[in-house]
Write a structure and sequence with these properties.
By secondary structure, the protein is an alpha/beta fold. The protein is built from 17 helices and 12 strands. The chain starts with a strand and ends with a helix. Bound molecules: 1,4-dihydronicotinamide adenine dinucleotide (NAI) and 6-O-phosphono-beta-D-fructofuranose (F6P). The site of 1,4-dihydronicotinamide adenine dinucleotide (NAI) has 26 residues, from α1, β2 and α4. The site of 6-O-phosphono-beta-D-fructofuranose has 8 residues, from α7. Keywords: NAD, Oxidoreductase.
């Protein structure tokens, strides 16, 4: 079995690549980072160091690596004979890998079973986004896309920090991991990936993951950044930051329980587990990494505006979520392109226009005035 995996970064090597390797796939990593690909191409293995409770070291071998920019034809050829394609490149990058996948699909022998495609990104229905992009690059006169490819949404959860310099290809990760995959598109041909969980209704799982793990983690990052702290574990050790993060997750818990019918005690246990993961002192994770890309994170269906908007629609005024968004608006790490773009928007646009541009909420939305007020306050400081 062969899998082509786009994105040989933290999640690519430390999570998806590892689980596919353990499932028996030969993994072909495709990435545009030339130095990384050269290193992978000349290595015969790398280690994944799982740190925290029950630490372990796992070795990944039987992989190859290609530069999907300079060796695109080779990647297309690999896809044409692969069983599976996965991505961990970032939601905004899916549109760039989609045309390569479309070319690979077009080059497949018609007798091959449909290619199974899963985007492993932190976004609701990321695979669907990828599917839309592949369809846009697809020549319908050749074959029906749905007859040559199966697209399944997934939720991926494992904290993989940026790696320390000098670590080579090895990756340090937390011990916890969860890969939940929508079973329904596969019919009778569900891939055999022992480390993954296949479910019939992914929606509640993905919202629970994004609005608990990612909302909580990003809150810890923005509150920690505002408090001048460097590491996530330091932020969580600060009682004021920890209380604010807890309050945010109380609000998302209220929504998740009301919307999806999760049992409150189970959701509370999930929250506790997540909070304990954030405090893992063995993970060298920084507020700057976890807070990266604030514009994406303030998007309409993302971890803050998504749950806050739904609460507002239900007549509940979020408080802690708005406080987290307020902190996100102050995330001004100069090395983060989106933080710089956000700062420019805040200085160039009036508050109402900034709300629309950043969150895509219409002025008629019940959450709009509260975010407008946050932005007015932020602008008044500048
Ligand atoms: N790191 C984490 O803890 C988690 C990350 N995720 C998600 O996984 C995805 C990847 O995140 P990370 O691995 O942390 O980021 P990363 O930056 O470590 O890895 C992304 C990789 O994608 C590559 N890439 C960029 N453009 C590309 C292109 N056009 N074609 C092929 N490769 C390309 C980059 O060179 C890089 O190696 C994101 O969507 C993130 O939200 C999900 C769960 C946890
Ligand atoms: O690109 P994003 O959305 O920041 O994704 C990375 C985040 O995903 C998570 O691993 C959660 O699964 C966070 O711990 C991590 O910060």
């Amino acid at each position: 079995m062969k899998a082509v995996h786009f994105g040989a970064g933290n999640i690519g090597r430390g999570f998806v690549g590892l689980l596919l390797h353990e499932a028996g796939y030969e993994v072909v990593f495709a990435d545009v980072a030339d130095a990384l690909i050269s290193q992978l191409a000349s290595a015969s293995s790398y280690d994944v160091h799982e740190v925290g409770e029950n630490p372990a070291v796992k070795t990944v071998d039987r992989f190859r690596a290609l530069n999907s920019s300079t060796q695109e034809a080779a990647v297309v050829e690999e896809i044409s004979t692969a069983d599976l394609v996965t991505t961990a490149v970032g939601p905004h990058i899916l549109k760039f890998v989609a045309p390569v996948i479309a070319r690979g699909l077009a080059a497949r022998e018609p007798s091959l079973p449909p290619l199974q495609i899963m985007a492993c990104e932190n976004a609701i229905n990321a695979t669907h986004l990828l599917q839309v992009e592949v369809r846009a690059a697809w020549d319908d006169s050749a074959a029906d896309l749905d007859s040559v490819a199966v697209f399944a949404n997934t939720a991926v959860d494992r904290i993989v920090p940026n790696q320390e310099p000098g670590q080579g290809l090895d990756v340090t990760v937390e011990t916890f991991h969860e890969w939940v995959i929508d079973r329904t598109p596969f019919g009778d041909h569900v891939p055999d990936i022992p480390g993954a969980t296949f479910v019939d209704d992914l929606g509640p799982y993905i919202e629970r993951k994004l609005f608990t793990v990612n909302t909580g983690h990003a809150s810890a990052a923005y509150f920690g950044y505002a408090a001048g702290l460097e590491k996530i574990s330091e932020a969580m050790a600060d009682p004021s930051v920890a209380a604010k993060v807890r309050a945010v997750l109380e609000e998302t818990k209220e929504l998740l329980v009301a919307k999806h019918g999760f049992v409150e005690a189970e959701q509370e246990a999930y929250v506790q587990k997540i909070l304990s993961r954030f405090t893992n002192p063995y993970l060298p994770d920084t507020v700057v990494r976890v807070g990266r890309a604030p514009l994406r994170k303030l998007g309409r269906h993302e971890r803050f505006v998504g749950p806050a908007a739904e609460l507002a629609e239900r007549g509940v005024t979020p408080v802690a979520l708005l406080e987290a968004m307020s902190a996100a608006l102050r995330f001004d790490d100069g090395s983060d392109d989106e933080a710089v773009e956000l700062a420019n928007m805040l200085s160039e646009l009036d508050a109402a226009a900034a709300v629309e541009r950043i969150t895509e909420l219409p002025p008629s939305h019940p959450l709009f005035p509260a975010i407008q007020k946050l932005i007015e306050d932020r602008k008044a400081e500048a």
